[in-house]
């Protein structure tokens, strides 16, 4: 069997498939770059370095993002698994409550009455929606009182979590209420009046449906933005945590011996300055020990003292003929 489609349509099909694949990959790459950048910026800001001065490439930021995103991805996976399990249980109970007409229920057990079960589920769902609205309100209040509570250490994490959780509860409970209504309408017999009525729904009802759909889309946008904000906060905290870990374990960083032409007048604790003996053809005259390599950029290195504290400085050394660098790795 041969393909009779013209070459142009085949080309358009391949372009469409390529665009479908490339779009998610592009978005994923942009997210990895962003979270890697946020983490790196927070990490090196701890040492007083603007990450843009290091000269890291986009690939470097992408490679740094998995460690930052590990915890958020695990939390999202566990939360999704718990949500799916809860959703299956809720939908199963709803289906069992509306599967049979009420007159077939066992009247000896009031709790077994499907109509009463459906009404009980509806009340619980409405209460849950009120709870979601309260959680969302608290998050919005925190959002608009930023100038008052911005010094709270957990503000940047608690606020998006409350907004996202509240919006998620509202969206889910609204869908469950619609499901209950639809199932009950399917089970209820249609009256002659409804069956014979050919009236067209007014335009006002159509506008109401459009408004509800727009509100639903906005709710999902709020959830996505809240997840993004919370993940960015975790990435920022992760970068700072990496910096603190490096300070507490400076032995993991390579030791550096730096030779220079001119005296650097370094006064940080732990740095030893030695005057090199003069010799014929000697270019470098001063040697510095007690330095650790923090990171190497495109054309420069960033060195910190072997005994680093928040009052110390970070030394920026160009990678050219003006310095000579020796690395000492511990066995």
Shape: elongated
Q: Measure the end-to-end span.
A: 68 Å
Number of domains: 2
Total number of helical segments?
Answer: 7
Strand content: 5-15%
How many strands, which pairing sense, and closed or not: the largest β-sheet? 6 strands, antiparallel
Instruction: Catalogue the unreliable spans.
Output: 102-111, 190-198
Q: Please give the number of β-strands.
A: 6
Instruction: Report mean pLDDT, rounded to a whole number.
Output: 81
- The helix content, as a percent range, equals 55-70%
The SSE string, one letter per element, is HHHHHHHEEEEEE
Keywords:
single chain, 331 residues, alpha+beta, 2 domains, 6-stranded antiparallel sheet, 7 helices, 11% strand
Could you walk me through the main structural features you see in this protein, from its secondary elements to its overall organization?
By secondary structure, this protein is an alpha+beta fold. It has 2 domains: 10-104 and 111-187 and 210-247, no CATH class; 252-328, no CATH class. 60% of the residues lie in helices and 11% in strands. It contains 7 helices and 6 strands, in the order αααααααββββββ. The chain has helices spanning 7-45, 58-98, 114-144, 146-149, 155-187, 192-196, 203-248, and strands spanning 255-260, 272-275, 286-296, 300-305, 315-318, 323-328. Strands 1, 2, 3, 4, 5 and 6 form a 6-stranded antiparallel sheet that branches. It is elongated, with a radius of gyration of 32 Å. It starts with 6 loop residues before the first helix and ends with a strand. Mean pLDDT is 81; it is low at 102-111 and 190-198.
């Amino acid at each position: 069997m041969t393909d009779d489609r013209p070459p142009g349509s085949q080309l358009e099909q391949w372009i469409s498939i390529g665009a479908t694949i490339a779009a998610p990959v592009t978005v994923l790459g942009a997210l990895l770059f962003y979270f890697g950048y946020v983490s790196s910026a927070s990490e090196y800001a701890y040492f007083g370095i603007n990450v843009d001065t290091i000269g890291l490439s986009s690939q470097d930021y992408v490679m740094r993002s998995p460690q930052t995103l590990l915890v958020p991805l695990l939390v999202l996976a566990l939360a999704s698994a718990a949500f799916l399990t809860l959703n299956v249980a809720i939908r199963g109970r709803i289906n069992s409550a509306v599967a049979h007409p009420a007159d077939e229920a066992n009247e000896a057990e009031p709790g077994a009455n499907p109509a009463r079960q459906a009404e009980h589920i509806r009340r619980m769902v409405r209460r849950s929606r009120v709870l979601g609205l309260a959680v969302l309100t608290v998050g919005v209040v925190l959002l608009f009182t930023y100038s008052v509570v911005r010094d709270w250490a957990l503000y940047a994490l608690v606020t998006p979590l409350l907004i996202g959780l509240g919006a998620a509860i509202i969206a889910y409970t609204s869908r469950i209420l619609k499901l209950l209504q639809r199932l009950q309408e399917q089970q209820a017999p249609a009256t002659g009046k409804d069956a014979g009525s050919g009236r067209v729904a007014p335009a006002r009802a159509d506008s109401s449906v459009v408004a509800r759909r727009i509100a639903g889309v906005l709710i999902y946008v709020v959830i996505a933005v809240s997840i993004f904000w919370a993940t960015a906060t975790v990435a920022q905290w992760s970068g700072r945590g990496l910096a603190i870990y490096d300070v507490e374990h400076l032995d993991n960083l390579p030791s550096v011996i730096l030779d220079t032409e001119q005296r650097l007048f370094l006064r940080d604790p732990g740095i030893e300055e030695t005057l090199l003996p003069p010799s014929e053809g000697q270019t470098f005259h001063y040697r510095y020990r007690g330095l650790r390599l923090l990171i190497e950029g495109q054309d420069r290195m960033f060195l910190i003292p072997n005994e680093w504290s928040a009052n110390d400085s970070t030394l920026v050394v160009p990678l050219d003929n003006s310095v000579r660098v020796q690395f000492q790795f511990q066995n």
